[in-house]
Amino acid sequence: MRRYELMLVFRPDAPDERLAAIIDRTTRQITAGGGQIVKVAPWGRRRLAYPIDRQREGSYHIVVFEAPAEAISELERSLLITEEVLRHLVVRQERPAKAARAEASGDESLLPSSEDEVEEDDGRERIDESESDAAPAATD
After folding, report:
1. Who has greater pLDDT, 122 or 16?
2. How far is it, in rounded angstroms, from Cα 52 to Cα 34?
3. Nearest residue to 99 (alpha-carbon basis) of 108, 111, 90
4. What is the pLDDT of residue 74?
5. Are the C-beta atoms of residues 105 and 71 closer than 8 Å to each other?
6. Per-residue pLDDT tens digits for 60-92
7. What rounded mean pLDDT belongs to the chain?
8. If residue 87 lies in a helix (H) or strand (E), which one and from where to where?
9. Is residue 8 within 8 Å of 85, Cβ to Cβ?
10. 10-19, 43-52, 99-108: which has the minimum mean pLDDT?
11. DSSP labels for 52-75?
């Protein structure tokens, strides 16, 4: 089973009882599909970056859960046909590389980590190429 995070954006005019019923139905669907709920957290009403269905605000909720990959498609299908849901997004949470490496090998001293790397300062100015506005070179 993998860990997922579900972000739900509801219509701001939807009654709280209806939102609670949708979240309850979603969590029951996850558990019926063989998953388990880790955390449900309401974020409250927030202004949207752009209007969705003529709505300028939305009520946000996050559900963190573990489930098999097969359960995700059925969950998304049911959220797509729910009128009160403006948007939803299911994201798989990656486990930290250090923890996965420790589980795989059992001995972290054999592999170098980014904490071990030290940059030497030779007095020259460094340019961060990741933030450069320059266009990439054309290749023909």
Report:
1. 16
2. 33
3. 108
4. 92
5. no
6. 999 999 999 999 999 999 999 999 999 999 999
7. 81
8. strand 85-92
9. yes
10. 99-108
11. ETTEEEEEEEEEEEEE-THHHHHH
Confirm if 12 and 58 have CB atoms less than 8 A apart.
yes
Angle at 41 between CA 37 and CA 47, to 5 degrees: 140
Say which residue the tokens 């909720």 belong to. 61
Angle between helices 70-80 and 16-32 (to 10 degrees): 160
Burial 101-139 (b: 16+ CB within 10 A, else e): eeeeeeeeeeeeeeeeeeeeeeeeeeeeeeeeeeeeeee
What b/e sequence results for 46-61 when a residue is b if at least 16 CB atoms lie within 10 Å of its CB, and e otherwise? Answer: eeeeeeeeeeebbbbb
